[in-house]
Design a protein that fits this description.
The protein has about 140 residues and is of the alpha+beta class. Helix content is about 25%, strand content about 20%. It has a single domain (about 1-140), classed as Aminopeptidase (3-Layer(aba) Sandwich). Strand 1 (about 25-30) and strand 2 (about 35-45) form a beta hairpin.
């Protein structure tokens, strides 16, 4: 998996985005230990249509489908509490996609992904996963 560096400055810039009201959460296990974090956002429809709640990004330290499922249920509930009419999320990793499906967010459409790798640094025979925040799906 290829991950970009996430500095505190980058996350703070997302949280200060002027047109939206994003929120950030630590995700803890049953013992209270931090296992990951999530960013949520609401996108209001200027025409009075549905408010879209975005799971901007969710990173957890494990691959257990049930763990991802539980996180997405809680995040979806939080979006509804904030006033979202619908919840929207993107997934490329199998554990993320399955966690979303189990949480009631079924796959609706695939996204095309293109990557320029002029130096051939990324192996072509391995899976490639991109998180939503890295793909700039946070505010669209």
């Amino acid at each position: 998996m290829v991950l970009t560096t996430r500095s505190a400055d980058r996350l703070n810039a997302f949280l200060r985005f002027p047109r939206q009201a994003p929120s950030g959460y630590l995700i803890r296990d049953e013992r209270g230990d931090v296992r990951g974090f999530a960013l949520l956002n609401l996108i209001a429809n200027p025409d009075g249509g549905p408010v879209v709640g975005k799971i901007v990004d969710c990173l957890l330290d494990g691959y257990d489908f049930e763990y991802w499922h539980a996180a997405f249920v809680l995040l979806s509930d939080e979006l509804a509490r904030q006033g979202a009419d619908v919840a929207d999320a993107y997934a490329s990793a199998p554990w993320t996609a399955e966690g979303l499906r189990r949480a009631g967010l079924p796959r609706r459409h695939p996204l095309e992904f293109s990557l320029r790798d002029r130096k051939g640094l990324i192996p072509r025979d391995l899976p490639f996963h991109l998180t939503p925040i890295e793909a700039d799906y946070a505010y669209t």
